[in-house]
Amino acid sequence: MTGTVVLDPLLPLWLLYVAAGLSFAGTTLAIWRRLPGWWLRGLAAIALLVAIANPSLQQEDRQPLSDIVIAVVDESASQRIGTRADQTAAALETLRAEVAARENTELRVIRLGDGEGDEGTRLLSALTEALTEEPQGRIAGVVILSDGRVHDIEQAPGVPAPVHLLLSGQAGDWDRRLIVKNAPAFAVLGEQITLTLRIEDQGAAPGAALAPLTIAIDGGLPMEFEIPTGQDVELPLTLPHGGMNVLQFNTPVVAGELTDRNNAAVVQINGVRDRLRVLLVSGEPHPGERTWRNLLKSDASVDLVHFTILRPPEKQDGVPVNELSLIAFPTRELFLEKIDEFDLIIFDRYRRRGILPSSYLENIRNYVETGGAVLISSGPEYGGAESIYRSPLGAVLPGAPTARLFEEGFTPDLTDLGQRHPVTEGLEDFGPAPGANGLPGWGRWFRLIDVFPAPEADVVMQGPDGRPLLLLNRVGEGRVALLTSDHSWLWDRGFEGGGPQLELLRRLAHWMMKEPELEEEALWAEPAGQTMRIIRRTLGDRAGDVTVTHPDGTETLVPLDQVSPGRFETLWEAPEVGLYRLREGDREAVIALGPAAPREFEETIADATLLTPMVEATNGGVLRMEDGAPDLRSVRPGRPAAGRGWIGITPRGAYQTAEVRITPLVPAWLFLCLAGLLIVGAWLREGGRGRS
Fold first, then answer.
1. Fewest beta carbons less than 10 Å away: which of 463, 507, 583, 586?
2. Is 546 helix (H, G, I), strand (E, B) or coil?
3. Residues whose CB falls within 8 Å of the CB of residue 29, separated by 6 or more in sequence, listed in order
4. At how many degrees (to 10) do helices 501-512 and 289-297 cross?
5. pLDDT class for 1, splitting at 50, 70, 90?
6. Helix locations, 273-415, DSSP H
7. How far is CA 345 from CA 108, 277, 335, 338, 474, in A?
8. Does the global pTM surpass 0.90?
9. 3-state SS of 49-88?
């Protein structure tokens, strides 16, 4: 209970001031005129003014409020390295005990975990939020338990009390990290790019001059190197294939270093082709020939070389050679000297007429076996004696002709295997009309050459009575496709609504170019924040569970659900950012959610440098947890608040007013009576003097 005298005027203050002015003027006039009762007049004026001012006694019932000490506990990923978590827990328990032993003091604990994505430790943002929730007049001190690695130093708040940092870690800690600089998002196949690598030692490192480095592409066998530490090393690289290339860099853990979380890095580079070089050889003019040419020429990324054999050697029409406007067919240059420069060779209704000798066709077979791609678009000639199958190239073709030719209307259809194969899966969705009788809504074709498929070939499309229409095969390192009809151009012309010719041939070309997204057996993941969509494509009827290996080495089995024939997917929420490895059967994949070494692990040595300015501005201190938990003392505002083995807080003496009572000191009527008596006294004194 406290009491103070306050004024509770009966009139507005401005009227009180006016009355005081008039009273002063009247008293001054009385003194000037030397009236004997001037002092009685003055006392009467004062009594009236006091009555109007109404002096009162204000009494307050105050309840003292506790002082608040805020403890910000850093529980981010870097604080889980080594013994830091145990150090922090022990320091927090000691702080709890110190605060509990003090009267009228309480502890607020703010725990800070990992932020979303890769934003790092947002410690000062958490402190700012905590300060806004507490009255500033009760904050007696702030204690930060952290390794000092914060990533929002620009959010440092103003604190009305001492700030202290209890630093985790050991003074002799050291760590090694791998850094990949200037990695491009994409690169042109066949062109060399340069990556810059650096292996950097931090803290009390042993000072090794060289460090081992392994590089693996798409989870393959790693290549081993040794590079100098503390220096930028340039790595020339040519991507091995189109699509996403996942490059893993790793340096092994050395005894004594803090963590291996920053010893690896993953770079994902999309390999793109500058131009797809296609050689189109047309055996004879036919309605679909220009369709092939227009299709390939319409793609700006295709560099097309097209030759049509219009005058075979056996054609004798008597026209002198020097009068022909045809250029000589550069067979030797194309099929011997520069064949490896082509990404795809297409034979469109080609028949053997002596233009390409057997040695050239054998060279094309070797081209396929060493990684090339050949597409055969066949017509009636494929089943005859001049068929290209009856050449050295026939050894790699996926279908042997039976010499039977079917010329009747039929709707191309997908086989059961074609429903699952990436070249043809989902092609029904590109139909111009809904299908009927179980067939896609495509236009009909009217010719099919009967073939007997090779045992290892995949039949993905079929014609009448289930006869093979599109066959795919892998030969050595290369790929071969056989289309047993020359009527695909009917789709391009829109006959009976047409069909997905462009989509089919696009996929077919990309499959032959070994684009990863069109592999029959594939496992990959698509990231979206910390969620990954795991996708398994297979020609089989089922897919097993995927084993996901976390950045810390733990494993999780993730089941997949079939979403379409041959395609199995699931969404999986990853617990943290980092490098994840996926495995299902003999298929493996690597995916990085955020960087392989998150921001938390870029700098792992405990360091107070960033927080020291804020600590010093409040007269606080920085103490290492390894030196033992400090004592807690009270200090006056503005005094040093830390020393050897102790930290200080400033008691604030805050209180809450529960009740306020205002009681007049003297009743107003008493002052009025007193003023009346003084006025009468002044009149009598001045009147008596006048009679004498």
1. 586
2. strand
3. none
4. 70
5. low
6. 289-297, 331-332, 358-369
7. 74, 9, 10, 12, 15
8. no
9. HHHHHCEEEEEEEEEECCEEEEEEEECCHHHHCCCHHHHH
